[in-house]
Amino acid sequence: MKIRIGTPKAQRLATDRDGEHLGRRLDTPPLPLPTQFHDDAPGSARSSVAAMCPRRVENAPGALRWEVHKLTIRGRRLVGRRLVEMRDSNRRYIFEPPPDHWLVALTTPGGGTPHGQRHRRHLAMTRGRPGESPAAGPRTVAARSQPGVLPAHHLPAGRLTKECGSPAYEHKEPTTMEMFTGAYQDNLEPEGDPGRNRSMQDALDSFMNGLSGSDLTALERVGLTVAALTGNESLPWAGHRHNEVHYSASMVKLLAMYAAHTLRFFAEGLRADQKPATADDFFAALASEFNGAIRSATPAKILATYPNESDEAKIIPAYQTVLEPQLDVSGTPVGVDFTFGYRTHLRGMLIQQQDAPAADCIHGVAFGFMNAKAGDDGFFDDANQRGIWLAGDYIGQWTPVTIASVNDALVAQATTAVDMARLFARMFSGTLESGSLTDLIPMLTPGGRSWFHQLLIWPNGDISATHSKVGIGPLKRNGAGVIERVVSEALIAHDRGRDIDFAVIWQNLKVPGNATMPELQPVANMVETTIKAFQP
């Protein structure tokens, strides 16, 4: 049984499992399971998928318990120490079912348990009434079923009314807000899986095999990933040179946007958990809770470049530059947002495509935090030095920290097409813990700023771009003494005829100057061929 659990805004989903199997494990009659748990509100700050093992609850007649064996937070699989830390969180929510009905709650038992078991979470069904605390324990995350008639052992229709705040649930001891909790589950179908949907990959391979002349020369070195945003946990995709690390100029600024929203997300979580009394207390709590973890997670080559205490600004975010607590009339923080200045820099970096605001954004989140999150979230493989890497500020103010690339030797702004596609697809599918669709999408340029739209290649039939982040920048002087430029783009392509969106990442198109229609048309053909071949 898998149950997706989260904040009051999260969608909950339980998959059908064998009720007879559960019944045998519990020595009870077969138990038909509800198929959906959900909440009415769209969007989510955090949700979980827990793989559960059924057990009976001692001293609780009629109650059922499922111990958590695997836990996934918004697609991020937690194991070992990270799983223990996440289980120890006191993030909790109030569920108010109708009187005399049953509720389901994912709980952390309180003190008094044997050593090594105090972090165990379980899912228990207990009888409850509105305003009452579930019998399972003081720390509770609960979900409700869709309206309908269910057996007495199962969760009826109810309402998840608010987060925390109830005396029955209040836990006075502040807890640590874990910032580094392990990689997201891969949201692309496994490349070597024989069951992978290869409709796009086969078409792309056939397209590349049919090239010749200048088109072959130009496109053979292009890195490309196209992922169909089907809503599945594992997305169909196709790629060409998708695992190669390339210098990709301004497209990599997307990582700075992601890091900023991630920082704001964790800052708001800390505020909600610790409830600092003043703005000064809020910023002090950020430094106390996060600085040590950020230093520990920062890639070694960044720490080697910036080893001194005077270099802390390159490792630790400038909290007061990036974040502004929203205060009530008494001066108590009740929310967290970006400062006006930082939001202006974000728009300058992403919409106006300017380097000076980009530097301000990067300085705000720091090389250390930004790349620590990329690595921990699974978008950069430190062991193989492959993935999304941004450790240069585009204006040369901070000493860059470089990794090896295929197209430009050592570089500070680089990515693979497939890792950027993983991040970009999550941005637009709403499965990042750090930002909602309505928050992230306005930060990108409209589709009309796509390279293909600027040069009047798209719209082409039913295909057009809806959102884009372009890149263009110079390579180092080659052996012939020529400085070429590379063009790149992350875009959302919409197939209007089938009403399907695709995350498209392409990079390493080499041009002598500004990109022109004849140079970009073959790339557009490459993308269109792949998209049109998709079969669900």
Q: What oligomerization state is this entry in?
A: single chain
Shape: globular
Structural class: alpha+beta
The tally of domains stands at 3
How many β-strands, per DSSP? Answer: 24
The low-confidence parts are: 1-175
What is the arithmetic mean of pLDDT? Answer: 74
Please specify the SSE layout and strand pairing:
Blueprint: E1 2-6, H1 19-26, E2 47-56, E3 64-73, E4 76-78, H2 80-87, E5 93-96, E6 101-108, E7 122-128, E8 139-143, E9 159-163, H3 199-209, H4 213-220, E10 223-228, E11 237-240, E12 246-247, H5 254-274, H6 279-297, H7 300-305, H8 319-322, E13 323-327, E14 333-338, H9 340-350, H10 355-365, H11 367-376, E15 380-381, E16 386-387, E17 389-390, E18 403-405, E19 409-411, E20 413-415, H12 417-429, H13 437-440, E21 445-446, H14 451-454, E22 463-474, E23 485-495, E24 500-511, H15 517-532
Antiparallel strand pairs: 1-2, 2-3, 3-4, 3-7, 5-9, 6-7, 6-8, 10-11, 10-24, 12-20, 13-14, 15-16, 17-20, 18-19, 21-22, 22-23, 23-24
Helix pairs in contact: 3-15, 5-10, 5-11, 9-10
